[in-house]
Amino acid sequence: MADQLKGRTVFITGSGGVLGSTYVRRMLDEGARVIASDLKGHRADALIEKHGANENFRFYDLDVGDEDGCTEIFQRILKDGWEPNVVLNNAAITGELLMGAGKPFPDFADTSVEDFERTLRTNLTGAFMIARQMDRDIVGKWPCTLVNVASMYALNGAHHPIYDGMPFKNFSAYGVTKAGIHGLTVWLAGYWAPRKATVNTIAPGAVFNNHSEEFQKRVGELIMAGRMCEPDEIADVMLFLASPQSGYMTGQLVNVDGGFSAW
Ligand SMILES: NC(=O)c1ccc[n+]([C@@H]2O[C@H](COP(=O)([O-])OP(=O)(O)OC[C@H]3O[C@@H](n4cnc5c(N)ncnc54)[C@H](O)[C@@H]3O)[C@@H](O)[C@H]2O)c1
């Protein structure tokens, strides 16, 4: 569909990651103005290098765990002349990111309160702070929508054996935050409805990102479709949720997981 997002101005957190960068590319292709944001660093740099010359693209540094940054973000965007009508709470500390410092992935018994709370701060409190600021600066001023990002491991427990011998595991706080984010969605849906704002959750399945053959096989056996998905297959549904065609949906959790959650 061409121009599915014409008239949409989409603000995305964590835009430089596997899925975020796919949303940016696909949304620009569909005629949206895209306001990307992420932590400073190589992911942000790559995104700016790729899209910086596009007049429909802007980038703002934003750590969603930083309250001042979240409080100021929409005022910065509005001051620069764009009015976001779609917001994607996409930023997250994923399990892989916890290994960033090169330390071994912690077992549950060795999980520190610091790592647990750091994950809550980014994945859940960050999403709350963006939604709260949307409420203050945008909701009720023009029709708008928020998409919160959960996971197939939000309302379903992780299959721990598939991580045996892998360099990463499923981190306990991750699933906790992803279950919590849908709580934020259903809470906000009724709260915002009188002001013509909708809010939904997308729960992506297992996205292929250079995983080993063995890991792909183990995950594939848990999925009706028998395989991991491509980022564009999640983006197809994200585009719909960001488009006017989803205008009568609010408070919903949309699983895009090859049937994983339906066995
Ligand atoms: N990839 C998957 O298999 C999968 C499955 C289910 C859900 N998801 C969810 O989809 C979303 C995107 O995932 P992804 O696969 O692109 O992950 P990713 O790790 O590739 O990208 C996450 C992005 O969030 C950014 N980020 C981390 N902390 C941040 C902070 N404090 N402030 C701002 N940005 C921050 C990172 O810099 C990164 O660009 C996440 O919410 C993730 O939980 C992913």
UniProtKB/TrEMBL annotation:
Protein name: SDR family oxidoreductase
Alphabetized InterPro entries for the sequence: NAD(P)-bd_dom_sf, Sc_DH/Rdtase_CS, SDR_fam
Protein family: Belongs to the short-chain dehydrogenases/reductases (SDR) family.
Keyword Lyase: no
Family matches, as Gene3D superfamilies: NAD(P)-binding Rossmann-like Domain (3.40.50.720)
Record key words, sorted: Oxidoreductase
PROSITE patterns from the UniProt entry: ADH_SHORT
Domain of life: Bacteria
Pfam families, A to Z: adh_short_C2 (PF13561)
